[in-house]
Amino acid sequence: MDGYQIHFILSRDPNTSPFFRGVFAPDTIPMLKEKSAIVVNVDKSTEPGSHWLAFYQEADNLEFFDSYGNPPEFYGPKFQEFTLNYSSVHWNSTTLQSLTSNVCGAYCIYFILKRCQGHSLYSIVLQKFIKIQHSQQMAETTEIQETSITENQEPETVPEDVITAKILKSAPVRYLITVKSIMDYLKDHHIPYCHGLQKEKLCTEVNAYLELIS
After folding, report:
1. Quick one: residue 60, left, alpha or beta (phi over 0 = left, psi -120 to 50 = alpha)?
2. CA dist 174 to 103, 180, 182, 209, Å?
3. What does pTM read for this prediction?
4. Could you tell me which InterPro entries the record lists for this protein (predicted)?
5. What band does 187 get if pLDDT is binned at 50, 70 and 90?
6. What confidence tens digit (pLDDT) does each residue in 102-121 have?
């Protein structure tokens, strides 16, 4: 999924369009001062692009979503410098996507769609894993703690192979957040996948995603 397709979907959905600011490279990330959501590639603007990440900002709080479960600084100084502009930074710490798949763009769309609907980062990721990593930045001191989610119901037990997969940074396909649910959401809300000459290309990618998770 390329930047045009991601931008097309998120800029037209009534839930995301008021807050979606665009698709960026790490050397072009803008300061977010109002409630905002952006998608960022790990490659510079002069490079072809390889992996999509998402940011959601509200007040002085920033949320970072990576389907590989890495923190922002994993992707270099540009990402780390960006997070230092906010007093509180949260991110998911569990791998959702296999290294052999190419569904990172769909994950970013899913995260931003749900977040703009009012779902918290906790409630979104709790569907498939049990940990959130939380970073509270104060002045020059950065305090990081890993917190288990506790709600009225205990989260589902994660099978041993998923824990192993997390360590290997390659989650089994059956434990992916269902890309089909993303596509069903778009269909149910009458959001076109794309338009014009790109339709055939995107439909091919969607079919590949659905085959991957079936």
Report:
1. alpha
2. 14, 12, 16, 12
3. 0.64
4. Papain-like_cys_pep_sf (IPR038765)
5. low
6. 888 988 998 999 899 998 88
